[in-house]
Amino acid sequence: MVKLTMIARVTDGLPLAEGLDDGRDMQDAEFYKQQVKALFKNLSRGQNEASRMSVETGPYIFHYIIEGRVCYLTMCDRAYPKKLAFQYLEDLKNEFERGYGNQIETAARPYAFIKFDTFIQRTKKLYQDTRTQRNIAKLNDELYEVHQVMTRNVQEVLGVGEKLDQVSQMSNRLTSESRVYADKARDLNRQALIRKWAPVAIVLGVVILLFWAKNKIW
């Protein structure tokens, strides 16, 4: 299954978007997000420049593609088909480029494209069950092959001898930015609920007012 999804600008490692619901059903989600941020930082320094790579980490595996100076990364169970993981990333890349391609270079704050979470969640659902006819067809698509994608260990990629507590320290400064991101997500959800139910509340208020006025008159 797809566990995490994150998108970042390669030139400086700036996070651009993330799956809001990612990691809620797994232990140590924050630990793996810190590893992802460390990978993004490595890429921003010009290390591990393969445009496609799989990186093993514990019971999971990171898959990423780089295109247009943007890295699209997902973390899946090791048993999840690599072919589907990369097709999932391709779908995200195509939609992200279509919607935000001309804004990527000018983005100045983390998670500038928070609204892309809607597409991430919708697309992730399509790829979760590998047994659907849609995903079986994708697995059998001979035109899309991933045999030559390199697979490495996360400690190799982050650097021999680099300790994971250093990764944790490096991500601490993004903690406050993540909180802001979560607050904005809650605000968006609240606004959506208000837009959905405000007309109903108005109609009910008018009906109650008319009923009260009728009783007063009679």
UniProtKB/TrEMBL annotation:
CDD domains linked to this entry: Longin, R-SNARE_SEC22
GO cellular component, one term: endoplasmic reticulum membrane
One Pfam entry name: Longin
Origin: domain of life: Eukaryota
Annotated ranges, domain Longin: 6-120
Domain spans labelled V-SNARE coiled-coil homology: 135-195
InterPro entries: Longin-like_dom_sf, Longin_dom, Sec22, V_SNARE_CC
Transmembrane segments: 193-213
Entry keywords, A to Z: Coiled coil, Endoplasmic reticulum, Golgi apparatus, Membrane, Protein transport, Transmembrane, Transmembrane helix, Transport
Chief location bin: endoplasmic reticulum
Membrane topology recorded in Swiss-Prot or TrEMBL: Single-pass type IV membrane protein
Protein's GO biological process: endoplasmic reticulum to Golgi vesicle-mediated transport; protein transport; retrograde vesicle-mediated transport, Golgi to endoplasmic reticulum
Matching SUPFAM superfamilies: SNARE fusion complex, SNARE-like
Compartmental location: Endoplasmic reticulum membrane; Golgi apparatus membrane
GO MF annotation terms: SNAP receptor activity
PANTHER family xref list: VESICLE-TRAFFICKING PROTEIN SEC22B (PTHR45837)
Family in the record: Belongs to the synaptobrevin family.
Name this polypeptide is given: 25.3 kDa vesicle transport protein
Organism: Tagetes erecta (African marigold)
